[in-house]
């Protein structure tokens, strides 16, 4: 049985990856930050499985800044594979909390690399990088050779982490890879990201729970794929015969307006009747022309993104409608 360690296990990607690895027979350890609430809704269904929780799925408390504890966890569970998904991942928020973003997203990654460098039994390492490293690129679509020109604190932190991963692979021989992920969404996406904010609003407005939704710029264009497919690519990267970096993307791009169109169409409404623009959600600077060329992943890993708009929006709206309907039929205690 292989053992995997996941940072950011309670996030969208961590949850899909845990499901995937459990289905492949792995023993999965996850690092979680200590907080006063123990609600981890995305993994709840696995915690209730007696054959899985504390048998093949284990949680450990640690902060990414706490290298002593992380080293201790690694020595204890001796992972074959380490998937590093944790970090401050909200681009808009990175303008408000740039230091925190750099501490976790940039330095947190370097700290993990330093721990692995000293271990005798080194796990294969996957870092989730981001299309934000390209910022405002000269070429479109971008691939693994495209120069980094980040324009947000988050993108800059990711560029630092990405280059450190490459450096540790090339200079210290670590099996360390960057998954350069474009936006990947799902019903498990956090509610402050634009896709989930929209699908949740479309469902709530359709069920008459909400009257409108406030958004920032509607002209931003993104390459939106389905998160469950992206974690499969991450796993494939660590099964590959050599460590390398891969762009993971659909190769299609759409505007926020296109995402609104698809989501509100799924509930037979016109988004223009419900959307307000709010300067609070505008960003001081934005990446542009971000669309990925994932042909290397297709060629070398046999991976291709399948789900794009409008299907992605439809499945997310459907899940949000089901959530509302389920909460309405639940008995009140
Ligand atoms: C690849 C990359 O993908 C994600 O970062 P993101 O692209 O910034 O994603 P988002 O959903 O926050 O914004 C998408 C677009 O939507 C616009 N937008 C309009 N109105 C709102 C709004 O109200 N909220 C938000 N969040 N965005 C809005 C916003 O200005 C931008 O143009 C992260 O996973 C990140 O970790 C990552 O690596």
TrEMBL record:
Residues 5-316 form the NAD(P)-binding domain. Its EC number is 4.2.1.47. It comes from the Bacteria. Its cofactor is NADP(+). CDD domains: GDP_MD_SDR_e. Signal peptide: none annotated. The active site is at 182 (nucleophile). Pfam families: GDP_Man_Dehyd. It is an enzyme of class 4 (lyase). It catalyses: GDP-alpha-D-mannose = GDP-4-dehydro-alpha-D-rhamnose + H2O. Keywords: Lyase, NADP. The keyword NADP applies. The keyword Lyase applies. Belongs to the NAD(P)-dependent epimerase/dehydratase family. GDP-mannose 4,6-dehydratase subfamily. Catalyzes the conversion of GDP-D-mannose to GDP-4-dehydro-6-deoxy-D-mannose. This is GDP-mannose 4,6-dehydratase. The gene is gmd.
């Amino acid at each position: 049985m292989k053992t995997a360690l996941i940072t950011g296990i309670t996030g969208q990607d961590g949850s899909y990856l845990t499901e995937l690895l459990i289905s492949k027979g792995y023993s999965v350890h996850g690092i979680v930050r200590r907080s006063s609430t123990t609600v981890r809704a995305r993994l709840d269904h696995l915690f209730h499985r007696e054959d899985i929780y504390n048998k093949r799925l284990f949680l450990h408390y640690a902060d990414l800044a706490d290298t002593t504890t992380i080293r201790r966890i690694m020595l204890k569970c001796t992972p074959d594979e380490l998937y590093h998904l944790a970090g401050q991942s909200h681009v808009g928020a990175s303008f408000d909390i740039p230091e925190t973003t750099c501490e976790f997203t940039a330095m947190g990654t370097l700290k993990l690399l330093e721990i692995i460098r000293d271990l005798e039994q080194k796990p294969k390492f996957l870092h989730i990088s981001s299309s934000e490293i390209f910022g405002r690129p000269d070429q479109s679509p971008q691939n693994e050779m495209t120069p980094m020109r980040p324009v947000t604190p988050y993108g800059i932190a990711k560029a630092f982490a990405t280059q450190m991963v490459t450096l540790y692979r090339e200079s210290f021989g670590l099996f360390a890879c960057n998954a350069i992920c474009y936006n990947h969404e799902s019903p498990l996406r956090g509610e402050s990201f634009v896709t989930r904010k929209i699908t949740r609003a479309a469902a709530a407005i359709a069920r008459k729970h909400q009257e409108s939704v406030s958004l920032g710029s509607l002209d931003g264009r993104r390459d939106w794929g389905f998160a469950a497919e992206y974690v499969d690519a991450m796993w494939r990267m660590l099964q590959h015969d050599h460590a390398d970096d891969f762009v993971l993307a659909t190769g299609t791009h759409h505007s926020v307006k296109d995402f609104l169109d698809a989501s509100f169409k799924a509930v037979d409404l016109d988004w223009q009747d419900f959307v307000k623009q709010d300067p609070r959600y505008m960003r001081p600077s934005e990446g542009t022309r971000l669309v990925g060329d994932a042909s290397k992943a297709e060629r070398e890993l046999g991976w291709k993104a399948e789900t794009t708009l409008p299907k992605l929006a439809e499945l997310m709206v459907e899940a949000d409608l089901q959530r509302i309907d389920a909460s309405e039929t639940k008995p009140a205690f």
